[in-house]
From TrEMBL, chain A:
It is a multi-pass membrane protein. Belongs to the binding-protein-dependent transport system permease family. Keywords: Cell membrane, Membrane, Transmembrane, Transmembrane helix, Transport. This is Dipeptide transport system permease protein DppB. Residues 96-325 form the ABC transmembrane type-1 domain. InterPro entries: BPD_transp_1_N, MetI-like, MetI-like_sf. It comes from Limimaricola cinnabarinus LL-001. One of its GO terms (molecular function) is dipeptide transmembrane transporter activity. It is found in: Cell membrane. The chain crosses the membrane at residues 12-30, 92-120, 132-156, 198-218, 256-282, 302-328.
Automatic annotation (TrEMBL), chain B:
This is Dipeptide transport system permease protein DppC. InterPro entries: BP-dependent_transpt_permease, MetI-like, MetI-like_sf, OppC_N. GO terms for cellular component: plasma membrane. Keywords: Cell membrane, Membrane, Peptide transport, Protein transport, Transmembrane, Transmembrane helix, Transport.
């Protein structure tokens, strides 16, 4: 096991360095001089320009610049936003809970519906339910989620008036964000109606963001279940006369869950990519919208820092999934 | 004797049904896949003939006919069968022409990503360990970024346009081909036929492209179908975010972005472009599932 852990770390480190290299290079390959861009339309004098070149270290060798960038990153210094003048690190972690809350809800939604759908489809292989569920899953998998979001807004916000269109909570309510999670904070505030408002704001973004993971999980669960159901020990269990519910629910599902859990873990990247679109459409104040806004505002330090933090997050989750997978499945460790 | 044996083998090869026929036989089993295939054919035909079958020019503005609903609704007009958008442009013509852009995006992205990915994958599979490790770490780095985010940032660097969106998507999709090709190459390299080719004196290039590559193609073809649909989706998403094709290009994602403020007043300007994306992507994914079942029994989704 130690060998496996070490080998995984051995591939993690170079990738981490590569990711920092890319985010370091980002601001330098942009068309135009970053200092001129920062000055904006006001322009600046030559003296001020020279001063800033020295301040940002653009006059020193690239290698030295990279080294300083890397040591800065490791100490949590990701630069300052051109627009808000706040550290990128602080901005990221102020907005991150919103994205995390939305992603967790989306994942719960996806697992709660996808897992049973996959199991039901596998148990009715080739029959009506299987076809209906898997066709629906394929539609979900092919869905342009930005359009799906607009459709849901037309139906549920426009025609039925059930759900709000944007934001995390009605402006009526105000309370300090102790945890950053609106669902918990609204409960803690004790204001009546605050929690319901938070839930109503969450429903549509959750469905939109959870749709593709839901489809992937349903498909994966079905194929994993079918594979397991063909195994000898299932036949043994049947021959012993165990009730089908016990066979499917305990013997089969437990082993079918392993690949499904991997898929869930590895869909963090998908969730974050989906969060970019979902948050933009629903004006959800998370990191996805923050990144898109920053790209449009040419707030390059934010884009650079956000890119790095998101990539590192995805890498850490993938590493954890790999390690956990190695823990559950000895066959993987041997490779 | 040697000669006789090879002749016998040759006749046997001839008697086997053609590869394409065999493939079609298995592909036909999956009704959904065949359905998807015909929709895809229709999509290709529309993409090829759009300028001739579209009733109007997709960018021509009929100012006095802005936001006309489709014909079956009250106020519809037969000269604009699917209605008009806020600028009075004919929806049907725009949708038909939009197929061209999506098709173009799909083809270019798949060709660029697949050819680059296959080359790198072959290289990684055949090369010494350090080069293999280097290539694979590079791919890991690209894969560490969520695809849409990386594409967005690349477009921010290159400037928003459809061409740059295609370049960005191709870069983002390429690592999947590298991984897939490398994995199949490594699986094939240990087999006897490769060893015998090597012993017979086949050079590196011949080994790579003639001996090994054809046997690795099945999963790559499946991946090509799947990334065709991903490319269309991502290009539309970039267009929707304002980072892909720019107005007045009738690209489906861009059309959606332009129509956003009218969602509660005119359902057709929002519903139709998205439906076009969904149907195209769904058809390609159906086809992809069928391809997988027919080409690669190992990957068969039971």
């Amino acid at each position: 096991m130690l060998r496996y852990v070490l080998s995984r770390f051995a591939t993690f480190l170079p990738t981490f360095i590569g990711v920092t290299l890319i985010s370091f290079a980002f601001i330098r390959v942009l068309p135009g001089d970053p200092i001129i861009v920062m000055a904006g339309e006001r322009g600046m004098s030559q003296e001020r320009y020279d001063e800033l070149v020295i301040q940002f270290g653009f006059d020193r060798p690239v290698l030295v610049q990279y080294w300083e960038y890397l040591t800065g990153v490791l100490q949590g210094d990701l630069g300052t936003s051109y627009v808000t003048k706040r550290p990128v690190w602080d901005e990221f972690f102020a907005l991150f809970p919103a994205t995390l809350e939305l992603s967790i809800c989306a994942m719960i939604f996806a697992v709660a519906l996808g897992l049973p759908a996959g199991v039901i489809a596998a148990m009715n292989r080739g029959k009506f339910y299987d076809r209906a569920l898997m066709s629906t899953a394929l539609i979900g998998y092919s869905m342009p989620i930005f359009w799906w979001a607009l459709l849901l807004i037309i139906v549920f916000s426009g025609n039925l008036g059930w759900t709000p269109v944007s934001g995390r909570i009605d402006l009526l309510y105000y309370f300090p964000d102790t945890t950053g999670f609106m669902l918990i904070d609204s409960l803690l505030s004790g204001q009546s109606g605050a929690f319901t408002s938070a839930v109503r704001h969450l429903i549509l973004p959750t469905i939109v963001l959870g749709t593709i993971p839901l489809a992937v999980i349903a498909r994966q669960t079905r194929s994993a279940m079918l594979e397991v159901l063909g195994e000898d020990y299932i036949r043994t269990a049947r021959a012993k006369g165990l009730p089908p519910g016990r066979i499917n629910g305990i013997h089969a599902l437990r082993n079918a869950l392993i690949p499904v859990i991997t898929v869930i873990g590895l869909s963090v990247g998908t969730l974050l990519a989906g969060a970019i679109l979902t948050e933009t459409i629903f004006s959800w104040p998370g990191i996805g919208k923050w990144m898109v806004d920053s790209i449009f505002r040419r707030d390059y330090p934010v884009v650079q820092g956000g890119l790095l933090l998101i990539a590192v997050m995805v890498m850490v989750v993938n590493l954890t999934v790999d390690l956990l997978y190695g823990l559950i499945n000895p066959k993987i460790r041997k490779r | 004797m040697d000669h006789a044996l090879s002749k016998e083998v040759e006749t046997q090869v001839e008697q086997r049904p053609g590869r394409l026929r065999e493939f079609w036989f298995y592909f036909r089993e999956n009704r959904g896949a065949v359905f998807g295939f015909w929709i895809f054919v229709a999509f290709v035909i529309v993409a090829a003939t759009a300028p001739w079958i579209a009733p109007h020019d997709p960018t021509q503005q009929f100012r006095e006919f802005a936001l006309i609903p489709p014909v079956w609704q009250e106020g519809g007009n037969w000269s604009f069968p699917l209605g008009t958008d806020p600028l009075g442009r004919d929806m049907l013509s725009r949708l038909l022409n939009g197929a061209r852009y999506s098709f173009f995006v799909g083809i270019v992205v798949v060709v660029v990503a697949a050819s680059g990915g296959i080359l790198l994958g072959l290289l990684a599979g055949f090369s010494p360990k350090w080069l293999d490790a280097l290539i694979m770490r590079l791919m890991d780095i690209i894969l560490a970024f969520p695809s849409l985010l990386l594409a967005l940032v690349l477009v921010a660097i290159l400037g928003p346009s459809l061409t740059n969106a295609m370049i960005a998507i191709a870069i983002v999709l390429q690592p999947h081909y590298v991984r897939l090709t490398r994995a199949s190459v490594i699986g094939e390299l240990g087999k006897d036929y490769v060893t015998s080719a090597r012993v017979a004196g086949a050079g590196l290039w011949r080994l790579m492209f003639v001996t090994v590559l054809p046997n690795c193609l099945a999963p790559i073809i499946v991946q090509a179908a799947l990334s065709f649909s991903t490319a269309i989706l991502d290009a539309a998403a970039l267009g929707f975010l304002g980072m892909g094709a720019q107005p007045p290009t009738p690209e489906w994602g861009t059309m959606l972005a332009e129509a956003r403020e009218f969602i509660l007043r005119a359902w057709w300007v929002v519903t139709l472009p998205g439906l076009a994306i969904l149907i195209t992507v769904l058809a390609i994914n159906l086809m992809g599932d069928g391809l997988r079942d027919a080409l690669d029994p190992k990957l068969k989704r039971s």
